[in-house]
Amino acid sequence: MGQLTGQLTVGADAVEAQCKRFEVRASEDGRVLFSADEDGITIGAEKLKVTGTEGAVFGHSVETPHIRAEPSQDLRLESPTRSLIMEAPRGVQVSAAAGDFKAACRKELHLQSTEGEIFLNAATIRLGNLPTGSPSSSSPSPSHSRQTVHELCVCPNGKLYLSPAGAGSTCQSSSNICLWS
Q1: What residue segments make up the domains of the chain, in order of their start?
Q2: pLDDT for position 145
Q3: Which residues does 123 contact at the CB level (< 8 Å), separation at least 6?
Q4: For residue 171, how many other CB atoms are within 10 A of its CB?
Q5: β 32-37/40-43 pair status
Q6: What DSSP element (H or E) covers 8?
Q7: What whole-number distance in Å separates Cα of residue 145 and Cα of residue 44?
Q8: With contact defined as beta carbons under 8 Å apart, do 86 and 92 qualify?
Q9: 37 in helix, strand or coil?
Q10: Where does the pLDDT of residue 175 fall: very low under 50, low under 70, confident under 90, or very high at 90 and above?
C-alpha cells in the first residue's frame, strides 16, 4: 500500500531497527529471546549473563526473585559511594550454611528490634576489647594486674565493661568506666 511499517538498516557501525516492536526468536522452538517496544524490553533467555568487568549498572530499581553467582564465584552487592539497603516487609534472611557470617563497619554497628528481641544462640559468645574498670582505692585488690576472672557490668547508659571479680559484685566499685562514656 506504499506505507512504511518498519525499517531495518544494516550499516558498517550499527544495525538499526525502526518499528513498533522488535523481536529476536530462538531458531529451535520460536520462543522470544529478546523483545523491545515502547513499554519496555523483555529478555526471555534462560539466563542473562553480563561479562563486562564493571558488571551491570541500573539507573533505577531492579526486580528479581533470585540473584546467583556463577559456580565457585563470590557474589558481591556493592554501593561504592552510598548505602546498600535491603528491605522486605516479611523479613530479611542472611544465611551462611557452610561458613562464617561477618559484619564489619567503620563506625557503629546497630542491631535493633522495635517489637521483639535480639537473640544470640551459640555455645560461646565472646565480647572482645571490653574496657576493664579499676577498683576504687577503698577496694583491696593486690592481685588486680593478674586477675583472670571478671564480672560483666552494665552502665546506666547500656555500655558494658569488665570488673575484677570478687566475693560480691565489684561493678559499683569499678564504675569509673561509666563516668567517661
Answers
A1: 7-44
A2: 58
A3: none
A4: 19
A5: antiparallel
A6: strand 7-10
A7: 69
A8: yes
A9: strand
A10: low
Q: How many of the other CB atoms lie within 10 Å of CB of 173?
A: 19
Residue type, 148: T
Q: Please list, in sequence order, all residues whose beta carbon lies within 8 angstroms of the beta carbon of residue 157, skipping any fewer than 6 positions away.
A: 178, 181
Question: Residue 177: what pLDDT?
Answer: 80
Residue 71 has pLDDT above 60, yes or no: yes
- How many residues belong to the chain? 181
CA torsion sign for 101, 107, 113, 117 is: positive
Burial grade of 154 (CB within 10 A; 0-12, 13-18, 19 or more):
exposed
pLDDT tens-place string over residues 30-68:
999 999 999 999 998 888 888 888 888 888 888 888 888
E strand intervals along 26-96: 32-37, 40-43
